[in-house]
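Supplementary Methods, section 5.1.

A reviewer requested that the exact input to the structure prediction be made available. We therefore reproduce it here, unchanged from the version used in the analyses.
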Amino acid sequence: MTGKKLKGPRPKHVPQRTCIACRKVDAKRGLRRLVRLEGDRVAVDPGGKRAGRGAYLCAERRCWEQALKRTAIERALKIDHLEPDDRQALIAYGASLPVGSEEDKIEPEVQPARA
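The structure derived from this sequence is encoded token-by-token as follows.
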């Protein structure tokens, strides 16, 4: 070998997003997007392409309940309050998701580098 690096296909860039409830970083497609619409309305954006300010939540009921209880959605989308219709729709959507477990939220322990 002459010291040249072998060329292969470049790894595909995977966008990362953070859940506004548990702060877990995951691939964009692994989270559910909420979007702020005109008139400070909020809707679930299943395709992740709608125009407007977005926020991401894990696809687990616990994160949705926590975000609604702590007003994380309002802070992330920069609105004063959720409309009652929007809140009910988000509660119903969150109730349809699996519960999840705390073990899912534990980030792997980083081992210190040895010199």
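Residues 36 and 53 are 5 Å apart (CA to CA). These observations are discussed further in the main text.
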